[in-house]
Specification:
It contains three helices and two strands. By secondary structure, it is mainly alpha-helical. It has a two-stranded antiparallel sheet with strand order 1-2. The longest helix is centred in the N-terminal third of the chain and has 17 residues.
Length: 109
């Protein structure tokens, strides 16, 4: 999945989570976004969904505040920082490749 698609999925999922409890029916796109956001089979290795570290009830951040950094899908392995809110994805520059340098730029990853 490209970086831009990841950003789009996170945005859709954040929108879905924000509007899911207000009694409005979700569109097919919103339903898909919710399914993807909570699908633990999309990580590598499988077992961790986006929502595990960017939980709706915690402001789309890591719900486990016991550690200063987030635990990954492999038990006992931690990243270098806590999971940021996925709501920041809307402000991230588009993920792309700089053809002149060959480097990837933008996105959240």
């Amino acid at each position: 999945m490209s970086g831009m698609r990841i950003v789009f999925v996170l945005f859709v999922a954040a929108f879905v989570m924000a509007h899911a409890g207000n009694g409005m029916a979700m569109t097919p796109e919103e339903q898909l976004g919710k399914l993807i956001y909570f699908d633990a089979n999309l990580s590598n290795p499988p077992g961790q969904a986006c929502a595990d570290c960017h939980h709706p009830t915690a402001g789309f951040t890591d719900p486990d505040h016991a550690f200063p950094v987030s635990e990954g899908v492999i038990p006992g392995k931690f990243g270098g920082r806590s999971a940021p809110t996925s709501a920041y994805a809307v402000y991230s520059p588009y993920f792309s490749r700089n053809e002149a340098t060959g480097e990837y730029v933008g996105g959240q990853f």
